[in-house]
Every structure is written in C-alpha cells, then in structure tokens.
TrEMBL record:
InterPro entries to which the protein is assigned, alphabetical: BilAc:Na_symport/Acr3 (IPR002657), Bilac:Na_transpt (IPR004710), Na+/solute_symporter_sf (IPR038770)
Bilayer-crossing regions: 21-44, 50-67, 79-103, 109-131, 138-165, 177-194, 206-226, 232-252
Pfam families per the UniProt record, alphabetical: SBF (PF01758)
Compartment(s) of residence: Membrane
Annotated protein name in UniProt: Bile acid:sodium symporter family protein
Keywords associated with the record: Membrane, Transmembrane, Transmembrane helix
Annotated source species: Streptomyces ziwulingensis
Membrane topology designation: Multi-pass membrane protein
Primary location class: membrane
Domain of life: Bacteria
Amino acid sequence: MRTEETEHRNKDVGGDSSARRAVTVFPLLVLAAGALGMLLPGSFSGWSGAVPYLLGVVMFCMGITMTPEDFRGVVRRPWAVALGLVAHYVIMPGLGWAIAHLLQLPPQLAAGVILVGCAPSGTASNVVTYLARGDVALSVSVATVSTLVAPLVTPPLTLLLAGAYLPVDTGSMVTDILKTVLLPVLAGLAVRLVAGRWVRRALPVLPWLSALTISVIVAVVVAGSADAIKSAAGLVFVAVVLHNGLGLALGYGAGRLGRLGEPGSRAMAFEVGMQNSGLAASLATAHFSPLAALPAAVFSVWHNISGALAAAWLSRRPAAPPAAVSPSVPAGKEPR
C-alpha cells in the first residue's frame, strides 16, 4: 500500500515527457556552457573561488527533493542498497585508476579521472533509471546513501589511488565535502520536512536551477584550462567514454550477479556508471588544478548523453517492474 508521502511524490512527477526534457536539455546546456568558457575564458577569470558555493546550491536542491521515503527504502532492502554502494565505490575508482595507467595520462589528468571515479552518484541516474524502466526506488536509495557517506569515502579513496600522481590533503577534502555536500543536503532535507507543502510547488523549478548552476561550474572549469584543452581534449574524451561505458556495463553485471532482477540491474548500471561530476570538478579545482577538473567537466556532459541513449535502448527491452515499487521518479531529482 502506498503511503501519503509516496502519493505526494507521485504528484511531483512530471511524467515521461518531463523526465526526457531534463535528460535531453541538460547536456545541451552544459555543452553551451563549455563552449562559452572555451571561447571567452577571460569572462570567467577569478570565478574559480565561487565553484564550491555553486555546488552547494546544487546539493541544497538535491536535499530539498529528498523525503523520508528515500530512507525507508534503505531499511526495506539493505542488501540491495549495500551492494549498490560497494559496487559504486569499488568499480568506478578502480576503473579510474586502471584507465589512467592504461592511457598513461599526465599526473593532473590522471588525478582528475580518479577523482571522478571516487565521487558519489549523480542524481541524473534516478531520472535515467526511470526512463530505462528500472528500479527507481533502489536507484534513489543508493544515490542518497552514496552522497551521505561521501565525506568518509571519497577523500581516502582519492589518496589511495591518486596519491602517487599528486599530493592529496584528505583532511581538507573531508572539510570541503562536508561544507559543499553534506551540510547543504541536510539543510535542504530540513526545509523539505518543515515546509513540504510549499516546497512541492517549487519542485519543477529545481532541476533547471541545478542544471544552470552546474553549467556555470563547467564554464568556469573549462575557462580555467582553455589552453590545455586544445591539446588534451581527445585523450580526456577517450578516458571519460571508457570510464563511463565500463562503469555502466560492470554496474549492470553486479546487479545480475547479486540477483537483483532486470529492473534492479538497470538501476545498478546507472548508479555505478553515473557520477557527481559537479563535486569532482569542485574538488579538483580546489585541491589540484583547473586542468585536473577537465575530466569532470567532460564527464558531466557525456554521462548524461550516454545515460539517455542507454535508457532509450533498455526501455525497448522487456522488464517487469518490482511488484511493490511504483515506477515513478521524483521530478526534483535534478540531473548532475
């Protein structure tokens, strides 16, 4: 039986056409922002210090879309959520390290690719899972938990895998993730709990606010390394496509090995293969360099394109949804 909160969330759903618009328009916005940063880098000089605050806006929007139902989903299926969490933080960091070695990336780019792999899930995965007729409840639960544990997991993983390329200050990185991710998410969740009726009216606006904010982050990152992009863009694109593609495939395989069924395996594919590239770009800019943030900027565009394509393909294959799960996605789960 559906709870009252679930009913409210279903009312927030804009439907298949709204979800498709979110997945389609967001990469276009990011592409336009990247082109603007490349063509007019001087327009964004001095903006790098604003990136953590911009990310905080995005994470606040994510928090404000959360509901107690997200956390109840974790309690209902702890095994499935734990499998998704372990797969996410093992497969993507490991792939980042392996690809950096395979392609013999320069230290700044290698650290950037690895940092993308160590980031938590991006909430675009929830929308894409919905389009792919996957297990949306599982997707939301894994994305929520991976974000909440990021301060404890991302810094040590980055130190372990990227420390050979560049110095990693884990203490400072933990503090930054707490300030730019966890606190804004908790603040958004608190606002949702206190003023849920008014927040629901604003939910359709939140994905676009997040998309525009992330586009500004991408423009700043690209502008900061515009000269290097001309010589490194091809190599970074290859690394990103490999990273994302293998992540999607291995995530799906982990779901099958864990006997989560077809809908659950589809959710696992997107929860593993799609990353919070906004966080990775912010951390790379603050702790490494604008060049190290380039893989995150490219990933931000590519994983939404590849996710939409994979969802379109999977949606045409049979997948019986779990009996106890409504195949809806919160409209406020903004793409990142």
